[in-house]
Amino acid sequence: MTLDELIEFIKKEDHRLREHYGNPPKERRILSRTVKLMEENGELAEEILALLVDQRNSKLGKRRNLSEEFADVIITTLLLAESAEVDIKDAIIRKIQEIDKRNYSK
Question: Measuring CA to CA, which residue among 2, 13, 31 is closest to residue 92?
Answer without folding.
Answer: 2
